[in-house]
Design a protein that fits this description.
This protein is an alpha+beta fold. It is built from 8 helices and 18 strands. The chain folds into 3 domains: about 90 residues, Pseudouridine synthase, CATH 3.30.2350.10; about 130 residues, Pseudouridine synthase (2-Layer Sandwich); about 70 residues, Roll (Archaeosine Trna-guanine Transglycosylase, Chain: A, domain 4), CATH 2.30.130. Helices cover about 20% and strands about 35% of the residues.
């Protein structure tokens, strides 16, 4: 009887991989591929990108998964190519064509249409989406030919920039709040222009403060040596750089990691100018040692520090 191959031992990696997701991969497919290449124990992604879309997909490993929600809630920026005059069932290239119309649109008409979609707007989520109704994603109903009523949602288009127009293709840059569907925005712009539209291309270029700079592809990850792959991960606190920081001495760090609330004004700790969410570090004992992230906390008035999410591997000496 042939012996079974030894079970692969996963590595407890902690960090963030900025992936430039390729066309044809779902976000989960890309995560599984990267997790396998890194041989990592625990991983999660920070919001979905449609299979036809590309661009910034932060993948969180180990302790970084505790902070993934911050990127789910973050603003996003996209560059998209809208095909005017052709409407599809999904609002992108993956759906069947529903209607074709002639396109005779001027730049002035485009500018007037775009002006209608800047700022706070209402947007009806698409049927081809992962939103759930009675435990089933909407796309399952859509594939069965069922269309359900969906309530319009409030989203914000922070910026809607014209990049190029070579009829019938319109290229835009969109900065938006979480929950915005660029497919729906493209369809709505097409409807405002009277010709219909779908997305030909979609590329996410920024999530929160994270951009395409420093992103790696699955091909680059696969080509790297085993030791080099883990070096491609950014540290956990790369997700938290927009938050002010607080540094604690070793005794305070131990109490913080036990979940204790600390009144830092009594401890002589330097504090940010305003209350709010902060990232918390162990203050190095000397100039040579590296700082150690302890987690995040809410800094309240009067210098009260309330632990929020803690790094399980943090160990003050």
């Amino acid at each position: 009887m042939a012996s079974r191959p030894p079970k692969r031992i996963r590595i407890p990696l902690n960090g963030v991989l900025l992936l430039d997701k390729p066309v044809g991969f779902s976000s989960n497919d890309a995560l599984i591929k990267a997790k396998g290449l890194l041989n990592a124990q625990k991983a999660g992604h920070t919001g979905t990108l449609d299979p036809f879309a590309t661009g910034v997909l932060p993948l969180c490993f180990g302790e970084a998964t505790k902070f993934a929600q911050d990127l789910l809630d973050a603003d996003k920026t996209y560059e998209t190519l809208i095909h005017l005059g052709v409407s599809t069932a999904t609002g992108d290239t993956e759906g069947e064509i529903l209607e074709r119309k002639d396109v005779n649109i001027s730049r002035e008409q485009i500018d007037a249409a775009l002006a209608r979609f800047r700022g706070p707007i209402k947007q009806v989520p698409p049927m081809y989406s992962a939103l759930k109704r009675d435990g089933k994603p909407l796309y399952e109903y859509a594939r069965a030919g069922i269309t359900l009523e969906r309530e319009a949602r409030d989203v914000t288009i922070h910026a809607l920039e014209f990049l190029d127009y070579q009829a019938p293709f319109l290229r835009l840059r969109v900065a938006c709040s979480k929950g915005t569907y660029i497919r729906v925005l493209g369809e709505d712009i097409g409807a405002a222009l009277g010709c219909g539209a779908h997305l030909q291309e979609l590329r996410r270029v920024q999530v929160g403060h994270l951009t395409l700079d420093g992103c790696v592809t699955l091909e680059q990850l696969g080509a790297a040596g085993e030791a080099e792959r883990s070096a491609l991960l950014a540290p956990v606190d790369s997700l938290l750089l927009t938050f002010p920081e607080v540094s604690l001495s070793e005794p305070l760090a131990k109490r913080f990691l036990q979940g204790q609330r600390l009144t830092l004004t009594k401890e002589g700790v330097a504090l940010p100018a305003a209350a709010g969410r902060v990232r918390v570090y162990l203050q190095p004992a000397d100039a040579v040692s590296n700082r150690q992230l302890l987690g995040t906390a809410q800094l309240h008035e009067y210098g009260v520090l309330a632990p929020e999410r803690l790094i399980a591997t943090a160990q003050p000496a």
